[in-house]
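Course assignment 3, question 2. Fill in each field.
Student: A.L.
Task: Predict the tertiary structure for the chain below.
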Amino acid sequence: MTDTTHQPTFKTVNQIALGNRLLRRKDVEQKTGKSRSAIYEGIRQGTFPAPVPIGGKSVAWLEEEVDSWIAHCLEARKRQRLENCPTPLRMTTQPQEQRA
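Answer field:
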């Protein structure tokens, strides 16, 4: 008879980050177009991914999280364009200028 019990698997930080590139702050600035202060303000407000410590006082960002943030911004832009799109009613009810 074979033993069919399963051992629980735990992912280590290294396994989670495996395949994810780490970006330093300058790389994040270049990829997002955000300044250093805007990055840290976004982190403080919870609107931008937080960095992960990589040793000493050094930090880095997971490229996958930065890419997800960029994708979220693009989706928000698409939604905003749809919300601001003029309807035919709005276009026809605007008064026309009278010529003298």
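Instructor remarks: The beta strands are 22-23, 52-55, 58-62. Residues 89-95 have pLDDT under 50 and may be disordered.
Grade: pending
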